[in-house]
Amino acid sequence: MRHNTMQQTFRALTLSYKVAPIAVREAVSLNEIACKNLLDKIGEFTEARDVLVLSTCNRTEVYYASEKDLSKELIKLIAIEKGFIATKDVSPYFKSITGHEEAVQHLFYVALGLESQVVGDMQIMNQVKKAYQWAADANMAGPFLHRLMHTIFAANKQVVNETAFRDGAASVSYATVELVEELTRGMENPRVLMIGVGEIGADVCDNFRKSSIRNVVIANRTHHKALELAQKTEATAVYWEQVWEEVQKAEVVVSSVPGDCFFIGKSALQNHEAGKAKFFIDLSMPRSIDAELETLEGVRVINIDNIRNRSTAALERRIASIPSVKEIVVDTVAEFQTWTKEMAMSPALQQFKSRLEEIRQQELARYLKNLGDAERAAVEAITKSMLNKIVKLPAIELKAACMRGESEELLNGLSTLFQLEKQEA
Asked: Which parts of the sequence belong to the Glutamyl-tRNA reductase N-terminal domain (predicted)?
């Protein structure tokens, strides 16, 4: 007897910075439109349900519920979405998590920042929330995914309130600011150019405001966004047309604009004074700064993979909090698994109730013919109340069996005793 098995077949397909170099991550990175397109393609060409597509600088992942492992199909759909059909170059970097509980735990770990390059990164939760919103908009989120995501959000609140895991600003953006401070130590009022005001760009500017760096210039294609951010973070906004001039002027250039929209090549530094220190920090995916710039004397290029965990007191506190966070995950996942099992048994309980209701109706039909309205109402009420009490006992027992992980046996017994139909997924 299979009870609503979709709850037991959650899987994940993941490619992350842990195994995939930056060029491979670029090849499969998906922007918002691509994520939404992929959701539609998965809905159209596969049997997957409860689908979540998550793509950041560090990872491209698909979470889904299916009886079959759909890794090959999903990699092919990502390849089609990205415009390259041969998947052999990227396939080896994808890892398939086919165990239900392992996939659930992996999503918890990713969302809470346990898997981030800078541990406890706060941005990942916002990215997960967006991915969930897109799944809901595409009608790819069923009761299972809705419940799972809200359980993760609740666990996140618990982590914030009960641990030091979110203390201090040790995100990628803070690590960037910290690095800029180190690189420019000894320079008088270094000029920093921030190109792009997306989520990371805005976050970096916000962190600059809290740092010793005072001369920050912001350039963005949509000028009013640069202006708004500059006002908020006490920086200066320049028009996009001035970006190349500003690249020449700045000691540090930070870019968070995707490289397929904007690219800084060697030609941008034709007037570079040999030996003068100049730093480029590339937070983009795909990359937007040519690594070849390093061949110029005094120029250094740092990409997102170079921004490693910055050894700060905040980071150390976070690392020390990891066991507490994992404990919260263990408890929350256990509660969630109990709910999943209860979901699986509810159709059987529903059937049991329907079977008893059928018997009640048959018996009432035989005896009610000769009764008046008042007697009829009394008999109706009494028999309904009896039925509800009878159903309540096995429901309580089944719930207790779920907690012990023994519900399958009881469900089979119930099914046999009352000749309930076999439940197919």
From this structure: 14-163
